């Protein structure tokens, strides 16, 4: 396997082999570059016109961190239409694993033989075979996660990569001959309307990609996930429990509702009470969802519009108050929706998607507005937790740069810089990354926050299935799992919901204030047990995800997830129709049970968590 770079300089020949229109890889730019130096972690190539390409592949934390720096060492402006973050060739593989993703269905694994994709080489090793996928816009895991694992079943070897890119991206797997090449990076000119003009003496650096190798899919995924380096606020490092009132009030977080919730949570071990959307509702708006963007606290919900009273109420019950914002977007009823000079445009028109337009975060005026409306509100009212939501996608590109794709990249990078600005202004703040649930669960976004909403599948039966998928993609200690408690649920449904959250961060919601004492005791027992095993969630290694479920909307079968750390193991098990009595003995072999939480697994819709330790011989 060799690290190199795929790139294309405007004006150079496209590849032959019937690839033009399918790929910009293997162009004249790549084929005629020469390797001029190679050291540990850095290979330098020179293009035929003198451009330099520094290909970094540095070993860190058990993975290889990759990026490419293009340097224009000529006297003319260079227009680059493709520049890979990572490119590998000489790979032997016969199977590929990808993670699909849609709203409330994040991270479902798709494993395919290369022969299923019609990618076996031709009889003359001529004609490219190409599998190309990616995402266009500002929801980087919409459709696919920026993730790939290639498997060589004969040698039982796996090579995986994860791309750190929150704007449009692409991954290509391609071949002519038996060996396979792969490249990943920013979506190129053909795929993502991206090109970059680089002046003489200037350079451009790609987003990072990380590569890992191992003997199993789960080993490679564990290495990729453990390589992520998140900014977790000090208050959040011990993985405390969250309560978010969204599935309680559904956009009506008034003082009476908050008082009932806070009273129930006091002294339970829950640390945060988060006020979700709707806190800015007003009679002047027909729809509070469409009113997002002006950020004036509601005079209906809070005395004289003083939301600080709500924060003080929450603190009086020993909880840290949190609040929801959708800071980068504006709703169709907000005054900001008409301030088109501050919004992203395409072809000179504001990018309008349903009820949303988008602030141009490259503009200082938008930073100043958010500093006044959001950071000031957080600071002056003592909020310690910020949930940042993001409920639409910008699409393929915007004005303001030499190409639509480059405009989008700049706008998304500016948003990420504002996340960094928030952390600098409020260093103790816990920040949650949400995008209609899980649409921004990629590593460069996860690096900026303490945790993220795993999905919007608030009360769906697929909650544990999605939560398990994400073990391959983000750190479980950051993956906030909804556990929505309903007053009319029986004990088994309550257990099903609570045990799902042991696959990540425990986030309660729902009818906590109205639960019968015995149902509320189940939640208290879950919180106590969670404290005992959270080190396994934070520091462990998921070596088993066994699921027989195919259809997430009508699940049948069972799921077993095992997470190990030293001599301990945590099994999280869920059953559906036709999935009773799953084979947990297979994954408990050699272990002794320490503690069991949940329902007996002898019927459908049951959940259990089993804490084990290796048996003494």
- Number of continuous helical runs: 13
End-to-end Cα distance, whole Å, is 43 Å
Could you name the CATH class of the largest domain?
Alpha Beta
CATH homologous superfamily identity of the largest domain? Aldolase class I
Radius of gyration: 25 Å
Silhouette: globular
Q: Largest beta sheet, briefly?
A: 11 strands, antiparallel
- Please state the average pLDDT score: 97
Number of strands: 35
Structural class: alpha+beta
The number of distinct structural domains comes to 2
Query: Strand portion, in percent?
Result: 25-35%
Fraction of residues in helices? 10-25%
Can you characterise this structure?
The protein is of the alpha+beta class. It folds into two domains: 2-226, Distorted Sandwich (Beta-galactosidase, Chain A, domain 5); 242-340 and 354-388 and 419-536, Alpha-Beta Barrel (TIM Barrel). Helices cover 21% and strands 33% of the residues. It is built from 13 helices and 35 strands. The strands form six sheets. Strands 3, 4, 5, 6, 8, 9, 11, 12, 13, 17 and 18 form an eleven-stranded antiparallel sheet that branches. Strands 19-20-21-26-27-28-29-30 form an eight-stranded parallel beta barrel, surrounded by four helices. α6 links the parallel β20 and β21. α5 (255-265) packs parallel to α6 (308-316) and α11 (491-500) runs parallel beside α12. The chain is globular, with a radius of gyration of 25 Å. The chain starts with a strand and ends with a strand. The relative contact order is 0.10.
